[in-house]
């Protein structure tokens, strides 16, 4: 299934409207696994807004061409080739009927129409529809679709497609049919069909306007008991979108279908959302609190796409963040509202912290590497490679900045105008920006740079207090520092940065914020400064005492703030800042500073020592019962090894691991009694509850257990973890106990308790694929030791009967977990991790290039590591470059090596 064509660079500047438009599509499928016949009847006309073309060029891949007809007559001037179909001398307006054949059973790419567990599924975003039939497979060609499915009734009793069911019935040869109609125009990437042996959990709800809607969650029969949470999440999403944005479900029914073979998390096909089972199936025995939260977020995300992505879609793939960044923002707000409503800032801050941690660890790293690109990219070779953290997560932050500038009401006004102007259209990021600007009477021309400039901005802060005049000046300077060449060439000038600030007095309380020129201070103690110049000074007046600044509150812009806080100042902010995000941020800064100092010492073999003040700061948070358990868990979690390594001038994963483990052991031993007390205080006896409050207690309790596993003598932790494992009535506690046992055993090169728990875990859940994914991941991410390197465990697990490289979830659980989430073991000095990585990228490339390309990105920052590691990574990249054939992987490795 590899694509050996020479890659062509596609550029945003070259966009041209399609020469032809398609108004209606009628598809007929005769579904047979190895030979599905597709009959495609389209009404085609020339686009009056495009240059006149001599030929109609349709996209198509892995298709067997059978016939073409125009207006009911055979059309001889149709020429099939490897990448499509060329039709010469077509009229200005005509009905085109094409018949072709595809082989879903052989489609291991999981793009287009494919077979999984004996059922038919589709995945058409970004360019999968061309694997189903010849078509103008681009997002700005929008049509209404009618779909007729025919298949064996015994083998495929359920036949689904987009929209509303028009009719269904039996056929004389043991087959049956179903005909579906989607009344809304959509691009081909939103097409979907499903056929197979499935069952559904159903609910009927009424929309805000009183219309009855049928909701269905379709799964394989043995998974029906794991669908309730997904259904509840869908209902909550529908209600939230009505209340927050006035957007109703526009179809008679909405369907979710779960499939175990899926390249991504889920797909928002109009009215028929196809999901990875990972983001649908959950019950307390098989899913963790994180799984429950992720399901709620992903169900929300895909449902919200019904308007931000379906009703209004993107004109071209360069505008991908128009739908993805906006919808990530919407799902983040939904999750925050589910946790804390609109007013519980502490609960909402927990969600905000989690989102920013992901952004800083993954998107900031992307900005620093060879794949750096703006939120709206300027070029690509393979669009699948641009479903990135920048497009999604940084794109979400760009959308959030509109809300920060205009408030919730102003943002809602902008959204209302956006839908009024563009419902049913394929539009651009600029169209969204103009709607927000016009609705709020603002000029946002400068804000466009957030879409066109790559790299992570840096804001350096200088402050000056004039006690005599009671004036406090804050000078902000923006730039990018030493960024990747791919980012540097995009930078045109200063950004409009909404910079939220507070000032804290000696007693820990917020001070009034009266800017120079204002008659009086506003009531709010957080101000959003509109920072628009390369350097800009903001002066606060009537400041009675020298304050401590609380900078970039609630992470009001995706930037790196440079301000030289002392350790004492950070400890003060950790204790007193009224902004929950910045309170957490102060602790992270304090820990990061200490950990990087220790890593530098570890790299030279020097002795390690942790200042008592750091231990005391952690102790204050650990024992502060006024803080929520979920906040304490996040505040007490050290920055990740991957994030810390990226902060070093020369990344040294082994030194970072040594430093981080030293700090964890020091905190474990120094605060042992506090950890034990917290563990006991935050048990959650009784039936499992999937609520944010209960999840917070479990999270803090299990964090305490993970620290106890670091004790010099972990016998007590092993006893506690073993008891928790045996008594657990939920996957959150069981998996946490198993993880603690594995890490407690690492120093001893293994233990009977850990191995017994691993064996028991597998036997209990052998028939639960998603749980076995956890079993693989726990082993791939365990600490390991010189006597028991994790690479040996991973290689052995590759030959386990339950491992299947063709299943993306299984590949991610073992291979990706080791390469991306176990840096100290993956970056072993002997290069064994890199050799393993190269072998797996090459193997995956032949099966599923999309998945292979995501794995390939593990080494894109290779130039930032120590010389020994660099040499090993370069050799592995060169091996991959010499063997892979797909555009997907070649774009990644060639940019990395360039």
UniProtKB/TrEMBL annotation:
<dbReference type="Pfam" id="PF01433">
    <property type="entry name" value="Peptidase_M1"/>
</dbReference>
<dbReference type="InterPro" id="IPR045357">
    <property type="entry name" value="Aminopeptidase_N-like_N"/>
</dbReference>
<keyword id="KW-0378">Hydrolase</keyword>
<comment type="similarity">
    <text>Belongs to the peptidase M1 family.</text>
</comment>
<dbReference type="InterPro" id="IPR038438">
    <property type="entry name" value="PepN_Ig-like_sf"/>
</dbReference>
<keyword id="KW-0482">Metalloprotease</keyword>
<keyword id="KW-0479">Metal-binding</keyword>
<keyword id="KW-0862">Zinc</keyword>
<feature type="domain" description="Peptidase M1 alanyl aminopeptidase Ig-like fold">
    <location>
        <begin position="455"/>
        <end position="564"/>
    </location>
</feature>
<dbReference type="InterPro" id="IPR014782">
    <property type="entry name" value="Peptidase_M1_dom"/>
</dbReference>
<feature type="domain" description="Aminopeptidase N-like N-terminal">
    <location>
        <begin position="97"/>
        <end position="190"/>
    </location>
</feature>
<dbReference type="Pfam" id="PF17432">
    <property type="entry name" value="DUF3458_C"/>
</dbReference>
<dbReference type="Pfam" id="PF11940">
    <property type="entry name" value="DUF3458"/>
</dbReference>
<dbReference type="InterPro" id="IPR037144">
    <property type="entry name" value="Peptidase_M1_pepN_C_sf"/>
</dbReference>
<dbReference type="InterPro" id="IPR001930">
    <property type="entry name" value="Peptidase_M1"/>
</dbReference>
<feature type="domain" description="Peptidase M1 membrane alanine aminopeptidase">
    <location>
        <begin position="230"/>
        <end position="450"/>
    </location>
</feature>
<dbReference type="InterPro" id="IPR012779">
    <property type="entry name" value="Peptidase_M1_pepN"/>
</dbReference>
<dbReference type="InterPro" id="IPR035414">
    <property type="entry name" value="Peptidase_M1_pepN_Ig-like"/>
</dbReference>
<keyword id="KW-0645">Protease</keyword>
<keyword id="KW-0031">Aminopeptidase</keyword>
<dbReference type="GO" id="GO:0016285">
    <property type="term" value="F:alanyl aminopeptidase activity"/>
</dbReference>
<feature type="domain" description="Peptidase M1 alanyl aminopeptidase C-terminal">
    <location>
        <begin position="568"/>
        <end position="898"/>
    </location>
</feature>
<dbReference type="InterPro" id="IPR024601">
    <property type="entry name" value="Peptidase_M1_pepN_C"/>
</dbReference>
<protein>
    <recommendedName>
        <fullName>Aminopeptidase N</fullName>
        <ecNumber>3.4.11.2</ecNumber>
    </recommendedName>
</protein>
<dbReference type="InterPro" id="IPR027268">
    <property type="entry name" value="Peptidase_M4/M1_CTD_sf"/>
</dbReference>
<dbReference type="Pfam" id="PF17900">
    <property type="entry name" value="Peptidase_M1_N"/>
</dbReference>
<dbReference type="InterPro" id="IPR042097">
    <property type="entry name" value="Aminopeptidase_N-like_N_sf"/>
</dbReference>
